Amino acid sequence: MASQRRAAPRRQDDGGGAAPARRRVLVAGGAGFLGGHLCALLLRQGHEVIALDSLQTGLMANLAPLLEHPRFRFIHHDICDRLHDAPSVDQVFNLACPASPPQYQADPVHTMLTNVLGTHNLLELAAGCGARFLQASTSEVYGDPEQHPQTEAYRGHVSPTGPRACYDEGKRAAETLCFDMLRLGRVDARVVRIFNTYGPRMRADDGRIVSNFICQALAGEPLTIYGSGTQTRSFCFVSDLIRGMAALMALPDNPREPVNLGNPGERSIAEIAELVRSMTNSASRIVHRPLPVDDPRRRCPDIGRARALLGWQPEVALEDGLRPTIAWFAGAGAPKRLPAAA
Ligand code: NAD
Ligand code: UDP
């Protein structure tokens, strides 16, 4: 049975304008693409960081520059299992879940359990030590949206039975757990709905569009457009996204509503293919492959709530974010084609 333990919420203010207080922060999914960038930001802000990860899709390479840091530590753990001897922390970021469709569909039952059991385990951990909690939710909670752009009030158009459901419905259930724990007064839980985000340190074999197109273009291989390429996405550079997540965690008052974070610059998939081809000076052909089942046709965030609450908006234009991303994939330090995720 779930524990009803609740610790008093820890002070989260920054000491009346003095230097920001140092906090102990747990980042679940810390070895992933976004998690590695978030751990680095939190260390730069002066916090103590504990990254926790099963390494299902994450890579220790994402944390390599942090491993020697005196305020950093790594725990190898699957959040579906209760964490015995859990560290006492001030804040918990839950990013633990594969984000790429081929990766979250590789073991769909585990994806669902990660979102439900895993999120519950971390919420209980936060309740036990009075920690503030931030859940990395997703624009996928809107499914194949009938409202455009998507505001947080839109309830979505999601298949509960299709191949994306383990992720979409799992993330919706995780949001439910967060808001129930908040209403019960057990955890100061906050939820960000992240729209497609890209940048250096994505895995070359990740399967998402930006990493696929860049790796294909750099290798002179055909760029694979699924379907006609008229479907759209809105791409946010990683530094913008991480800044927004940290801002919501730092907000003194819980908004008690989810917050969209993304870049409203909507592009078609065919446009992205042309842009990557031209920015890499690639002669790669474009080939079409079948559109995956339930692939959303359009996606664009309404970020009015993030602007109003956090004063947040993206600063990096797509071309400016693609440049360092391409340079990273082209660089010697970037992993080339990696073995498929376990
Ligand atoms: P990622 O796959 O690179 O990172 C996920 C990390 O979680 C990996 O390190 C993985 O090993 C770890 N993980 C997965 N299951 C786990 C488990 N059961 N226990 C412990 N660790 C586990 O993906 P990402 O792009 O960094 O995404 C991070 C989070 O942000 C995810 O929750 C994802 O749903 C969310 N998100 C990302 C995007 C995006 O565009 N990047 C968009 C929407 C939502
Ligand atoms: N996509 C594509 N070619 C690829 C990878 C993805 O055309 O090699 C398409 C995919 O069908 C979707 C869009 O690009 O319409 C974004 O896919 P991604 O997997 O990056 O994210 P998501 O579908 O979760 O938004």
UniProtKB/TrEMBL annotation:
Its cofactor is NAD(+). Keywords: Decarboxylase, Lyase, NAD. It comes from the Bacteria. Residues 25-262 form the NAD-dependent epimerase/dehydratase domain. InterPro entries: Epimerase_deHydtase, NAD(P)-bd_dom_sf, UXS-like. This is SDR family oxidoreductase. It comes from Falsiroseomonas selenitidurans.
